[in-house]
Amino acid sequence: MANFRHEWKHEINTSDAAVVRQRLMTVTKPDPHAQMICLPDISGRPGIHRYIYEIRSLYFDNLTDKALREKIDGVNMREKFRIRYYNGDASVIHLEKKRKCNGLTSKESALLTKEDVQKILCGDYGFMAHSPYALVVELYHKMRTEGLAPKTIVDYTREPFVYAPGNVRVTLDYNIRTGIGWTDFLNPDCVTISAGDQIMIMEVKWDAFLPDIIRDAVQLTGRRAGAFSKYAACRIYG
Q1: Backbone angles phi, psi at 227, to 5 degrees
Q2: What pLDDT is recorded for position 32?
Q3: 155 with 56: CB under 8 angstroms?
Q4: Which of 2, 35, 112, 194 could connect to 116 by a Cys-Cys bridge, CB 3.0–4.6 Å?
Q5: pLDDT in tens, 96-132
């Protein structure tokens, strides 16, 4: 059973992100899975380092858009399934179920092969019933009984920061894009389009307590926690 964690989400702008990034870089560590990139400074010379990774997700929903509607309506207890891989590398793919209950979140994960995902995309998911992973079997039954099916691609860039006390993870998510056809999920070169206005999302996640040093670092005047959904933003396009 996955542990539930606290989660804040804030819609921010690039100026907010610059402030938060500078604060976090002095007290946190970059995610070990992130890739370092070097950006030019204001004079055009290399010198600004950031640690990022690219995320591609494929979300599931049923014919009545249950997951989408529950998110929009703010249903207290809800769940959603997605398949995800990182940095265009489809050799490692995760099936994830994210749950929300009383404002807390949890996530369960299981591995899928590229061949497994291709079968799911083609509607051939009988193999899932015999998976060694309970989560894959659960999705199979919900595809059969509730009509869950692949719905939309969500791509974005994530800039993560980690802080060990409290198991804190702060992320800046931006460049949110969606693919018109989810059948191209395994193609890293598939065409994606911007999902509306290019806002940034700051997420703050922690276990039992949020250290004051992080609470202060992410504090922004006039910004309050919200309920932004990348999935909902991308569903506008299909």
Answers
A1: -135, 45
A2: 84
A3: yes
A4: 112
A5: 999 999 889 999 999 999 999 999 999 999 999 999 9
Number of separate domains in the chain: 1
Q: Which residue has the tokens 């604060």?
A: 23
Q: What are the tens digits of pLDDT across the range 9-48?
A: 999 988 999 999 999 999 998 888 888 888 665 555 666 7
Q: Are 236 and 196 in contact (CB under 8 A)?
A: yes
Return the SS3 of 105. Answer: strand
Q: How far apart are CA 177 and CA 79, in angstroms?
A: 22
Residue 234, SS3? helix
* pLDDT at res. 181: 64
Task: Report pLDDT digits (tens) over 57-69.
Answer: 999 999 999 999 9
Beta carbons of 80 and 107 less than 8 angstroms apart: no
Which residues are registered as beta bridge partners of 48? 39
Among 220, 232, 206, which residue's Cα sits nearest to residue 10?
A: 220
What is the number of H-type helices and E-type strands within the chain?
6, 11
Domain range spanning residue 226? 5-235
CATH code of 157's domain? 3.20.100.30
